[in-house]
Amino acid sequence: KDTDKERGTSEWRINGQIKTQKQVRELLKSMHIQVGNLCQMLPQDRVGDFSKKDEAGLLEETARSVYGEFYDNSIKELLKFHDEHHVKQKLLNKKQSQLENE
């Protein structure tokens, strides 16, 4: 990526040929490169972010690196189940309290 700060424009290049940002994203996707995944690609401006992570953050980034979308989808599903469980637990506690008060 070449950035012209004075004009506020950027050009993307692949093997010296100018490409659109969409073409660059498609190439990255086809090669399974996840730029936002700190374990897969660590550009200098993100190295600091990675080194500041605690053990849980490092584990999360490592799992994301290994499992990709499967990890993200699994986490979303687990969070959904957790929320459903929390709602049902509250309802159960309320019902138990009502039974005890009768």
TrEMBL record:
Official protein name in the record: Structural maintenance of chromosomes protein 5
GO cellular component: nucleus; Smc5-Smc6 complex
Keywords, ordered alphabetically: Coiled coil
Taxonomic source organism: Aplanochytrium stocchinoi
Database matches in Gene3D superfamilies: P-loop containing nucleotide triphosphate hydrolases (3.40.50.300)
SUPFAM superfamilies: P-loop containing nucleoside triphosphate hydrolases
Residue spans crossing the bilayer: none
Gene Ontology MF annotations: single-stranded DNA binding
Similarity field: Belongs to the SMC family. SMC5 subfamily.
InterPro entries: P-loop_NTPase (IPR027417)
Single GO biological process annotation from the record: double-strand break repair via homologous recombination
